[in-house]
Amino acid sequence: MQRRRLEEIERDRENARRIKELTAQLADLSDVVSRDYANAPIGDLQSWLRSQLVEDAQQATRSAFRARSAAMAVLWNLDGLHHESPNGKTCVCGRKVSDCRELRFLADCTSTLYGWEQQQLDRLKKGLECGLPREHPEMVKRNGYTTYRRVG
Hints:
Layout: H1 2-37, H2 44-81, H3 101-107, H4 110-125, H5 137-143
């Protein structure tokens, strides 16, 4: 189970790298298009090529963001089930902090997870699409169902 989560995190890192790569490629292609075709008459092929390149890069970016959000949503749900109790000695699952494998696993990614969560909350407040899981309290408020309760 932990191996699968590590693989998901690695895919998330790869997706982030790919997003950077595609963003740079989109900027390069935009420069080429504007530099080389700025004075040329715009024909059907040129218009199509421009729109297709931009559309492909945007689709790849959206896909990478969705994959990252899906992985982060799983981690967010896991964090809801495994986090330190107020006494700091046990996980809310009942095990000692030192004995909870899930809590130890999450320790390496909680700052990234909470940063992602804040970004998604900001997007939600702006009315943009976000990757928060439907069980997140803000999504529950927005959508009106209450299928999730954070333990502890």
